[in-house]
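seq as requested:
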Amino acid sequence: MWGIPRVNSTIKTTVFWLVIVIAAFLLWQSVKSSPNGPKIPEISYSEFLSDVEAGNVSKVIVFRNRIDGSYRDDRSFRLTAPTSQEGMLQILHQKGVEIWIRDSPSGDWSTSVTNLLPLVLLGALWFFMIRQINLKKAQKHESDVSQSSDTRWWNR
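struct tokens:
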């Protein structure tokens, strides 16, 4: 082991448990922020248009063909809209509905990074453990070889 510096066993153990704690925390954050919370009811497109015509809709957020919105009484709804939305947007505007257009419903890139980070940490932990196993096998093999060569020379 000429080129690899030896690391204290306590430091290895500390780093190992630190990685496990961080991965558990990030996994918990990912599960906690998942959309499994209160379910937003999905309505049909025709029901949505009827509610808009009746003046019950106060705000909509358009994500390509998905629409999240809220009624005047603060209840929420969700629906899938057709790809051609010009007519719908004109009706919404005429009825005084607040319209928001978003590029993506998933949030920004930090959400994706936060969701992938536990997997990356677990992959790094797996790589570290496999590397440690291979190093121990190599050390055991070297000691077996040196012991067998020592006994061969001494038994002559």
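Residues 45-102 form a domain with the Signal recognition particle alu RNA binding heterodimer, srp9/1 fold (CATH 3.30.720.210).
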